[in-house]
Specification:
Layout lengths: L4 E5 L8 H5 L3 E5 L6 E5 L9 E5 L5 H12 L3 E6 L3 H4 L16 H7 L2 H9 L5 E3 L1
Parallel strand pairs: 1-2, 1-5, 2-4, 5-6
Antiparallel strand pairs: 3-4
Length: about 130
């Protein structure tokens, strides 16, 4: 059994989750650039955690099912989000009219604002979170 769960939003590479996996945590990577659907990789070593890749936008039924199950398990130790800076920073306000462009899957995540709702929903129970 893993030590807990770490969730990473807008993370195609899994680089931020790797230390958590190696420390024995299960990791959920949500990014619409992953292959469509939900896949779970077997750990390389028995003491490593599993990696679940969710290839949908955050505001998708399959994504919420995975996240809801994780939250209800009460094992979530960390949530991190890495949206494009120009989508959430004041310096990107000139781009805000383009955020809902259908050609930008990551911008769809931010334009619907569910990432902020996710952290708000259980952020007070987390010791560490980042968005």
């Amino acid at each position: 059994m893993s030590k807990g769960i770490a969730i990473f939003l807008c993370d195609i590479t899994g680089t931020m989750g790797r230390p958590w996996v190696e420390a024995g945590y299960d990791v959920i990577l949500v990014d619409p650039q992953h292959p469509e659907g939900v896949t779970t990789d077997r750990p390389e070593y028995p003491f490593w955690g599993r990696v679940t890749k969710v290839g949908h936008i955050l505001n998708h039924q399959a994504t919420w099912r995975i996240l809801r199950d994780a939250i209800q398990s009460e094992r979530v130790a960390f949530v991190g989000g890495f949206p494009p800076c120009t989508d959430v920073a004041v310096c990107g306000t000139k781009n805000f009219t383009h955020i809902s462009s259908p050609n930008s899957a990551k911008r769809t995540i931010i334009s619907n604002q569910p990432a902020f709702g996710l952290v708000t929903a259980f952020g007070f129970r987390l010791k560490i979170w980042s968005l």
